[in-house]
Structure formats: C-alpha cells, structure tokens
Amino acid sequence: MSGIRADARDASRLSADLHRLDHVSRAAMAAVLHPALPGTADGIAARLPVAPRHRSLLRRWLASLTAAGAVRRDEDGVFHAVGPADPPALHELPDRYGRLGFPPAMARLHRAALERLPELLSDRVTLAGLLPQDTDVLTALGAYQRNVFTGRLHARCAELAAGAVAARGHGPARVVEIGGGSAATAQAVLEALRGHDADYVFTDVSPLCTAAAAERFGVATALLDVDGDFAAQGFPPGSADVVVAANVLHNAADIPAALRRVRRLLVPGGTLLVIDSAGDCDTVLTSMEFLLSPPASSPHAADPRTRCTDRRAGTDTVFPAAGEWEEDLMAAGLLVRARYPDEADGPAPAGQYLWHAVAPGEGAVDTSVLQAILAGRDGEAVCTVDGSPFDARAVLAAVPPTPAGRLPEEAALFFSGVAEALAAAQPEPVPEPGPPPHTLVLTGDPAGAEAALHTWARRGRVTAVPSGTPPARLLAALERAQATEAVLPPALVRSLPESPTAALTDLSALARVVCTEPGADPESAAAWAALGPRLVQAAPPRPGGHRAPRDIAETASAAGDAALGGLDPHASAAAAREVSRAALHSMLHTLRQAGCCTRTGERRTRDEITAAVRPAPAHRRLLHRWLTVLTEEGLLSADASGALRCTADPDTYADLDAVWGPARQRWRAAHGSDATVTYARSSAGELLALLRGERSAAGVLFPRGRTDTARSLYRESATARYQHHAAAALTAGHLRETDSGRVRRVLEAGGGTATTTEVVLPALERLTGTPVEYLFTDVSPFFLDHARDRFGDRLRYGLLDIDRDPVEQGHAAGTFDAVVAGGVLNAAVDTDRSVRGLTRLLVPGGLLVLTEPTREEHWVLASQGFLLADPGDARAATGASFLTHDQWRAVLDKAGLLPVADLPAAGHPLHPLGHRVFAARRPAT
Fold first, then answer.
1. How far apart are CA 628 and CA 614, in angstroms?
2. What is the pLDDT of residue 364?
3. What percent of the chain is predicted at pLDDT more than 70?
4. How many CB atoms lie within 10 A of CB 873?
5. Is the pLDDT of residue 430 over 60?
6. Beta strands 381-385; 388-391: pairing state
7. What's the whole-number average pLDDT of the chain?
8. Are residues 606 and 627 in contact, defined by beta-carbon separation less than 8 angstroms?
C-alpha cells in the first residue's frame, strides 16, 4: 500500500504545521476585519470595502473566526472582536510550507496575499496579479498541489486506478480524468499506468489546461464541462472504465447531478476516484480561494450564493462535508468502497479526502421506482432498522446496498433484501382510504422486504427488527412502534401469541398479522384474534422471477454471495492478507521482546529461541509453529544446521501501532468496521505474556466475561458472512427437501457465541410444513446461558463435548435431520473421531454442515491459537493448526458421508482464503 498513512510522528508534525498555518491565516483575517468591528457581515463588507464577488468569502472568514473564538456573533447578527488583533507571524511561513513539502514559491505567494488582503478583498489587486512575472495561474495551481498530504492522496488514487485497470483483464481500459487542471493528479496516475493496457483522456473546461497536458504527457485531451451533458460533449454513456475527478466536483453547480453524469459515463462495475475537500481551510481561505470567487463578468458575481443549485444553494458553502459527499455519491447510484483517510486515521490534512466508488455491475437494481414512491419524504423517518431511523434520502442511498460495512449489520441485511424485492416487484404509489400503515418486518426476511416496498407505496412507515429478536422483545417492539400490521414467518405466527408477555402487551394499534408462507392454522388465528389483530395469509409468490437453483449447493452459494451485499470480496481478501502480514510481524516483535531477532542476520537455534521466550508447556508447540510459518514466509531463514536467521529489518516490526495501522485501514475500508483488527492488535500486545502463560487468551477474547468482542469477530469478515448464510441455506434447503411430516430436528454443535445460530435459526423459522426443533449445544454452560438469554424458548439447550461420543452424553443416535458445526471442529483433538460422533446423530439421509478454515491463518496463530488443544489427528504430524482441504475431504469420506457441497467454488474471490463450507449426507440406507 502507498504511504496514505504517515507514521505517528509524521502525522503529528503535519498536523502541527497545518494548524500553525491556519493560525497565522486567522490572525491575518482578524487584523483586516478588526477596524470594521463591530458590524454585520454586510456592514463590514461596506466599510472595508469588499467586492461583491468576494463577499461570500468574507462570510466564510467570519464563520471561521467565530468558530475559533476570535470574534463573536450576537443574536442580532453583529460580529464583535474578542480581544486585540495580534499581528500574523509571517516569518513562520517559509519553514512551515517547506516542512509540508510545498515549493518555496507557495510561501512567498501566501505572504504576499496576507500582506495585501484588504486589496484582494476589494479587487484592487487579484491573486493572479501577485504571482511572479514568469508564473501563470496554472503553474501556481500545480505548485499548490505539490505537498506531502496531497501527494499521498495522488499516490493512493494512482494505485487504485492501476488496480482497476489491471482487474479489467481484457482489451485497453479507458481512463477519463475530469477537470485535470494543473495535471498534478494526472502525473501520478499516468506513472502508475505504465505497462498497463489503458487509454488515458485528460479533460478540462479550459483549453489552456488541455493544451498543457497534451504537450507535457502526449495524451489525448478534450474539453469537458462537468455542468454540461457529457454525451453532447463527446462522452457517451458506458464509455469509461475509470474516471478520476480530483479537486473539480466542488466546482459543479449541482454536485449530485454531476455525479449522476459520471455514473452514466462509467461502464457497469466501473471505478470512480474523487479527491476533494470536505470543508474550509483557513490557509486556503486567505490565498487560493480568491481564485474560486466568480469572475467579475459572471452572472453570479453580485451574489455568489446563487451559483449552486444543490444543497449548497443560498449558502456560502463551497465544499460539502465528508458525509454529504458520500450521501451524494450513493444517491447517484454509486457504491462507496472506501474513504482515505478514514475515521481511524483522524482528521484529514487540510480537509482533503479521496473516495473510491464503483458503478453497480450488470443487473443492478433500478431505484427509479423507489424514488417515485418515496418522493417528497426527505427528512421524514420512513423506516427504522434495529432502532436506527432512515429518511427517504438515506433509504435511497442504501438501496442498492452500500458496502456492507458502511451500514450497521442489520441495516445492510434489510436493505439487501429490499434491493432483491425491488428487482422482482415494481410497486407504484397506491392511495388507500384511512391512515398510512406502519408495518413491522424482520430483517433478512424476503417477504418482509417486499412488504416494506408496498408499505412505502402506501405512504406508510416500516419498522424492521432483527430476525433473532426474542419473543418478549418482539412484542415490546410492536407495542413501542404502534405498528398497524406485522409480517411474520409461520413459526413466529404460531409461537408469539403463546409468549407469557403477549397478554400484557398493548397491541391495540395492530390491525393485522400477515403470515408470510402457508401455515396459518385456525388455532393461531384464534390466538391472535384474542389479542386483537386478525391473522391473514400472504398472497402466494408471483410467477416468474429468478429461476429455481438446481440444488441446495447452488442455493447456498447464492445465499453466501447475497450476504456480501455491496462488500467487495477482492478488497476483503486483500485486507485479510494485510492482517496476516501484521500478525507475522507481531510474532517477530514478540521474539524481539524476548531478546531474539534484534537485528537482521541474527542467528539462533530453535532451542535458544525457546529458552529465551520461556513458553508455558501448553504453548511450546504454538511457538514452534510460529517459527515454521515465519520461515515459510521468508521472515526467518534456516541454514544447513537448522538454525534460524532473521531476514527482516527490525524497524519494520519495532512499533506495533505502525505494524497494525495499514491492516486496520484496509480492513475498515473493506468491511466498514474493525473489530477483528482491534482484537488482533490487542492480542499482539500481549503475546509474550500469553506464551508464558502469564495472561489468559480467553480473557483477551472475552474481556470481563463479555461476548461482544467474539461475536463481532465471528460476524465481521466477508468469509464469516458468506459461511453463516451458506450454512443456513444448506440446512434449510435440506429440511425443505426432506419434510416427512414429523417434527424436524437440528442440532448445532459448539454453538458458542451463536453467530451461526442467529443466521440459521431465522432461515429455519421461515420454513413451511412440520415444525423444526433446534437444539443448541456447547461444551460450556457459559455459552448456553448467553444463548438462552438471547433466544429464549425458540431453542432447546444442551451440553455437548465434541471430543467425546455424543451418544454417551445423552444425545440419541439417528434422531437429527441435520447437524450444524460452525467453526468448532478445528478445536477438536481428533477430528476424525468427532466427525464420526456427529454422524452417528444423523438420521439416514441426514445432513452434516461444517464451516472450517483449511489453511493456516497467521492472525489466529497470534490470538485464538492459544485456545486450541494439541491435536491427535493429521495435524499432529505437520504441526498445523487446521486440516487442509484434502484432509477434510478425507475425514468426511472416512466417516461414510456423501459430498453435497464444498463452497465457495474455485474462482470465487474468497476461495483463496481457504474458509470452506462443507455439507455431506449420511447414506439413506
């Protein structure tokens, strides 16, 4: 990754120098305005005077000085000085600008501007007039963009552009730069594209800029106005694979409209890279911003606030806030992949960001119908998902789904379902007599997502609650929302009226309960009627739509992919590799703490390293596994005697924050959250104590006995999302196919934090036909108690140790239609024996569903690896933590099971990570 994140000292220095430049700039503003105070903005403008085209800039000065406490504004809009005006420290400019990487001319230009601010405001001089005789505006703009922080954004932008071109894989990619200006961004991107098959088109509204770029780079150029129709200017829809827009889109009169033009320009799946500011910078307000005031000949010169027609209309705002940029990108139908720097990096230097967005691929959902049914409802909470309100604008920004991590997990699940429902149904605004409905649905329920569309079409509101909500809380949600209708699967239709709290719940607003599938029986109708609402059966599914999958493996694969929502699996895989790299360097850091690997080339035997580290006996094997993988990854090398030499530079692993910083950034960019990295980084800081047995690994994973960290860990990654939903689809599909009229029974082994349960259980509750009985098991009563608190009587509970025969523990052989084991069998001592035991529980034809890693995970070796028992199966010979893919296939074969599914398939972006979903069936006879 390019140097988008400075190390801590560098970032601190950048911040200090930028803040000091802003302070000097504010002092210069205050010194100019002080003689005109007190006064209103108009009074100050008249007194100084300020040219009409710069009055918007004056008001931005006043806003900045007010925020900094240098002036105060009273209730009548009069600004007052707060203390005397200190003279600006102009002598600091050369050093500050120099440390920030600017050419010396920028410090000289800024000093000249600060010394002549009154003349600039009054238009007696222009900023262009302050330039040296041999320097034009274009050269000055280029110099302004030559600095450390903008250079990092350009480098990251270039890296992303090259990656997008390389990923295209066939024929020349067309890269279009919009508003190329001084070509500072073009220089970085063109350098990165060397050796790639790409056609680059440099555009700008100014012939001066395009001519300079053509002469400098020899690239194709064209004139393009962001406020005009792109097709009419020679850029038809779908003609660009990558669009770069650096420091130009804020110039658009209507940013959302410009972004819609850009989206139309992109091919499906095309990449947009936007660099722009997300707020004012005082240094720029007293220098380069004078170039952004409307020209004196412009119709907006008399009042610059008339220039924009978007949310900035009638205001002095030039740059939207970071969140507003992202809203506009998503409202244009673009999927925001990442923002650099992100929240974890702190404030962006000078307020500048890079956004990486993509156009939806082929078959993306057309949201025009949704826009029609939500028209006029901006600012109105049309939907609440798991307690978070969404107005019409936010709903449109989430459908098609944003990258999953950009939304809370339940919201991402709900809006993904809405997108699928929108693709199959085309609701239109339907006026109905009486008040608009308020519908309660479950996240993850396709029928609920479709019901949400029809509720919005009737101008109603939707409340979506997680599918795993316990009955008492679900009833409380109905009462709190005052929902007029509820859309529920058959299992909840039957069980909810029987809840002990049902009779105590105020359901007076609830007029009807809709059963989403066949299965609404007279007893349930009577039970609901006693509570007030009537029970109705949903209409049967409309014909057509998607073709039926060939088998449950295909269904599961589709479900896994759907769970990824807008997540980019390629970015997730890259983030996983970055986490792996950080974990390996954390191992070296730990060895260094013990006195080993203190310099490149240092030689130690394994015994000497073991003696220095002093691992507890239970962790000696893990330490030796570290040494093996460090050697395999080239960070250590073994000589002929078996002794190990350190090949890495100790500076690369001396500081754990520097080691984990890039991993955190990539992970957050890919997933929208960083619980995995937070946990792994926390564990990395404790590794020596963990190896020595001085610190409990369980205490790191379950701090103060809480499961929050572990649950986030097992939900967050792309592989976890894929696995949970694929496992749910396999289990539900099998039960659907094999309904024999008796109660269907499912056992989950090693349920733990119930992150598999919370996805599988709702899928089973949506099944029609005979009831499903779900037995949640774990070796620890601790996890049974947590599950019981969450799921109540929706589950049965029991103890099960996977290292012992389950029949001997009281679980009857041949009585379960499906057994689910999500990520637990890697903790077994003997996998073969454990799988044979679980197989014994299956009825003939029953299905075993497993999710397991099949390759070494370095971050697990530096965290959860401390919780794994020494194996007695095929792993014992190799020292590996996990069975390989071939070894797993052999385990299932030896247990006499027939293969049903092995996901994800080869060629899937997640396949190289080695996380597998296996399903195997016990023979029917």
1. 18
2. 53
3. 91
4. 17
5. no
6. antiparallel
7. 85
8. yes
Mean pLDDT of 578-586: 92
Amino acid 163: pLDDT: 87
What lies within 8 Å, CB to CB, of 480 at 6+ separation is: none
Pairing outcome for strands 352-358 and 335-340: antiparallel
Q: Which of 24, 8, 182, 145 lies closest to 94 in space, CA to CA?
A: 24
Alpha-carbon span 608 to 621, nearest angstrom? 15
The pair of structure tokens assigned to 709 is 């960290």
**Cis omega (within 30 of 0) on the bond before 904?**
yes
Position 411 scores a pLDDT of: 84
> d(Cα 703, Cα 716) in Å, to the nearest integer?
18
Establish how many alpha carbons lie within 13 A of residue 925's alpha carbon, considering only the half-sphere containing its beta carbon. Answer: 0
Q: Within the chain, what is the greatest distance between any pair of CA atoms?
A: 97
Backbone conformation region of residue 754, classed left if phi is above 0, alpha if psi is from -120 to 50, else beta: left
DSSP 521-577: -HHHHHHHHHHSPEEEEPPPPPS-SSPPPSSHHHHHHHHHHHHTBT--HHHHHHHHH
Place of tokens 């790409």: 198
Integer Cα distance of 447 and 560 in angstroms: 19
Q: What is the mean pLDDT of residues 134-139?
A: 62
On the question of a cis peptide bond just before residue 49, with omega within 30 degrees of 0, the verdict is yes
Res 405 pLDDT > 60: no
C-alpha 278: how far from its chain's center? 20
Instruction: List, edge to edge, every strand of the sheet that includes 335-340.
Output: 220-223, 198-204, 173-178, 240-246, 266-277, 352-358, 335-340
State both tokens at 200. Answer: 């680059």
pLDDT digits (tens, 9 = 90+) for 701-736: 877 777 777 777 788 888 999 999 999 999 999 998
pLDDT of 566 above 80: no
Task: For tokens 């009069």, name the residue.
Answer: 78
Cα-based distances in Å from 427 to 35, 421, 422, 439, 456: 63, 10, 8, 16, 9
Count Cβ atoms within 10 A of the Cβ of residue 599 and give its class: 0-12 exposed, 13-18 middle, 19 or more buried: exposed
- Average pLDDT (410-426) is 75
Give the separation between CA 571 and CA 159, rounded to whole angstroms.
13
Q: Are 14 and 31 in contact (CB under 8 A)?
A: no
**How far apart (Å, rounded) are the C-alpha atoms in residues 268 and 335?**
11
Establish how many alpha carbons lie within 13 A of residue 713's alpha carbon, considering only the half-sphere containing its beta carbon. Answer: 22
**Using one digit for the tens of pLDDT, what is the confidence trace for 339-374?**
888 544 445 567 788 999 888 765 455 666 787 788
The answer to whether 792 and 470 have CB atoms below 8 angstroms apart is: yes
Q: What is the pLDDT of residue 557?
A: 86
What secondary structure does DSSP assign to 398-432, as a single string?
HSSPPBGGGS-HHHHHHHHHHHHHHHH--------
